[in-house]
Specification:
The chain is mostly helical and 264 residues long. The chain has one domain. It contains seven helices and five strands. The strands form two sheets. A three-stranded antiparallel beta sheet has the order 2-1-5. It has a two-stranded antiparallel ribbon with strand order 3-4.
């Protein structure tokens, strides 16, 4: 009798281990596919930024030589609106992919009994849904000249003042979300792991699908998220401040991350 019970328990443990390994493999496959999609999108975004930069350079040359005309202005507005439509389409596609990932992630959190992290994920998804409703009635109405530049990976990129505000918002929103995710893992007694959270994986909260590419927004959101997660997990304020559901990075940290400069 005892031997049969031991065999049953061993068999049950073996099945659970096989299920765990299969879930882990599925997650790794999904992560690989997302990375491939992100790389493809980054290449496309880089090419689009190059075209935008060339158009901005042409616009400045025309202004300096006096050849700028109403026709040039109309063409530039049309091109910019086309770019914004492409960005909005990219945002919608990314949200569709994230919905599938979030459902799988919820099941994993439930199995791991990570109640605090699960609650955070649910709050984050609710904020994303509110974002989507807000964007349905949001209108893009100013393309503006690229009069700011920022440094990323040793290269300089340009954006207009609305884009500059979006990048700053990305860092601060990321910090706030990261702080909450770090707090949740600490409450669950879970190991340090910012990249495991829904906020890091999605990194689109606050994005309005205009002025900057989504990958740019996500990059700076995650810069803020990593710092916020660390502060939240260790219950400190090294990189920023968080209070009553709102957080922001210190101004010196923000400047270090963005290195944002006004272009004359």
């Amino acid at each position: 009798m005892q031997q049969n019970q031991d065999q049953q328990r061993a068999e049950q443990q073996r099945r659970l281990e096989l299920e765990r390994q299969q879930q882990q493999q599925n997650q790794q496959n999904g992560d690989w596919q997302r990375r491939q999609q992100q790389q493809t999108q980054q290449n496309s975004d880089w090419q689009r930024r190059q075209r935008e930069q060339q158009q901005q350079d042409s616009w400045r040359r025309q202004q300096s030589t006096g050849t700028y005309s109403d026709r040039t202005n109309n063409n530039q507005q049309r091109d910019w609106r086309r770019y914004q439509e492409q960005r909005a389409s990219q945002y919608r596609q990314e949200q569709y992919r994230q919905q599938s990932w979030a459902s799988q992630r919820q099941r994993e959190l439930e199995q791991q009994r990570r109640r605090a992290q699960l609650a955070y994920q649910q709050r984050y998804l609710q904020r994303i849904r509110q974002d989507q409703l807000r964007l349905q009635n949001w209108q893009y109405n100013d393309y503006g000249p690229n009069n700011y530049r920022y440094n990323r990976g040793g290269s300089y990129y340009e954006t207009n003042r609305y884009g500059a505000q979006m990048l700053q918002q990305a860092v601060n929103s990321g910090y706030s979300e990261g702080f909450q995710a770090g707090q949740a893992d600490r409450q669950d007694g879970w190991a340090f792991g910012p990249q495991d959270a829904i906020g890091y994986q999605d990194a689109s909260y606050g994005y309005n699908a205009y002025y900057v590419d989504m990958n740019e927004y996500q990059y700076y959101f995650r810069e803020g998220f990593n710092r916020g997660y660390e502060d939240g997990y260790y219950s400190r304020s090294q990189y920023g401040r968080y209070s009553n559901g709102t957080g922001s990075v210190l101004s010196a940290i923000l400047q270090t991350i963005l290195n944002l400069q006004l272009v004359n």
